[in-house]
Amino acid sequence: MGNSGTVYIHQGLNQLFAAGRSLILVQTFEEDRLQNLLEGLAKHYGKELWVWSVNLGIQRGAETIDQTRHPEDALAWLSNREERPVIWLKDMTRHDRPEVIRGLRDLYYRWRDGGFAVISATSRLIPPDLEREMAWYQLDMPAQVELVAAVKQWSEELGLSIALSDQVISATLKGLTLAEARHALVRLKNDPPPEDRVLAVLQEEKRRLVSKIGTLEYIPRVPKLNELGGLSNLKEWLAQRRDLIVSTDDKDREIVPKGILLMGVSGCGKSLCIKAISSAWQLPLYRIEMTRVFSGAFGSPELAFANACRLMEELAPAVLWIDEIEMGLSAEGSSAADTVLSRIFAFFLTWMQEKPPGLFVAATANRIDLLPAEMIRKGRFDQVFFVDLPTQSEREQIFEIHLKRRGYEPAAFTPEVFADATQGWNGAEIEQCVIAAVTNARMEQRDLQLKDLYATRKQIVPISQTMEEQVRHIRNWAYERAVRASAEE
Hints:
Elements: H1 11-18, E1 23-27, H2 31-44, E2 49-53, E3 57-60, E4 63-64, H3 71-79, E5 86-89, H4 98-110, E6 116-121, E7 135-138, H5 144-158, H6 166-173, H7 178-190, H8 198-213, E8 216-219, H9 232-240, E9 259-264, H10 270-281, E10 285-288, H11 290-293, H12 301-315, E11 318-322, H13 325-328, H14 339-354, E12 359-365, H15 373-376, E13 383-387, H16 392-405, H17 415-421, H18 427-443, H19 450-458, H20 463-466, H21 468-478, E14 483-484
Parallel strand pairs: 1-6, 1-7, 2-5, 5-6, 9-12, 9-13, 10-11, 11-12, 13-14
Antiparallel strand pairs: 2-3, 3-4, 8-10
Helix pairs in contact: 3-4, 5-6, 5-7, 7-8, 12-14, 16-17, 16-18, 18-19
């Protein structure tokens, strides 16, 4: 892309050209990309692309027009020509003198029969006297189709051989400018990472972008799906929709997954499930920090929340994680008792309905009964999954996973026996049992033994006993209202 000469007709700009808007302000940081888009539009409309800058004046192809460095001189020269080209005025926004305003207005009326004057700027700086004549357009981040073409071209130019598809790479880089995306690929060329770190390297540029807004956190390390014990129904649901989430086919638009809500007993792995979604779909994961939204450090809570959501639209396809959604967007948020929560809640409901395809919202809740019905109805979340206390076979898998993670062969520690003896335990308690046993063995400077696991098992009282009434309430509520994430035994 950029200076490559690749022709791509940008839909939004083309609509302004098709309407005969002869004076357009384009808000963008990407001059090289805008040049490529204007070249494509000029060719599409059978015109030449001329360029004016304050240091060179008007450049018509290889020719530089004398005495056109001053904006009023350039505008007068253009108005007196018979040609009706596409003229890109690079530095015109900083010239708001009366003679420049008059020159732009004259050009607007003279060129309404076919010429196009495009002014580029990094902010919306429309002089009040030109409010009705000048059209404004904010150039969005590169579309998926642009990025796919750019990645294919750059990979060939740089001689990159990456095991990931162009679709996955472009989805990972979505939300960056073309220049930022190319920097990420150049880094792969100059400092090749291990194969399993390629995605993480590509996502570094996005992490820098997200850190600027303050209310979003990029989650760099996510577990693989096979590191979750059990949850076969959830895993099957994710596997069936893996290709849909990054589909750019218009016929798939209405069936692209929008989001899921995970509810369940505390410690059963809801947060781990969301991280695994990112890994299973090879999509970057971002978490919205509601405490920062309400801190006031990033403007009013409503504005901070809306800005975070809109940035996520630019970063899509991606997974957005909202943790303990009932705490930040509870049922009380829909009442008039708290006007700030009420406005955020109303915005979120509309946004969930209208957000672009490829942005998948994964929310967790410990008390879904606190959420209003309008939030969890179909059309916003595709499915509500209940992550229950693990079954016996799942407890065995969880024991095996945590033993392997710490370098031990599970068969030597009879995980099936421990699974049978830990009924009512959640995944976090099983992990803590293994960690405590390994810690005790290390403190005595010896290897882990079976007796260490037996000793730590006796010291843990599961939450299903300490919070028995609350756990029973959650399970009873979910029994007929949610889909189990695990297959029943």
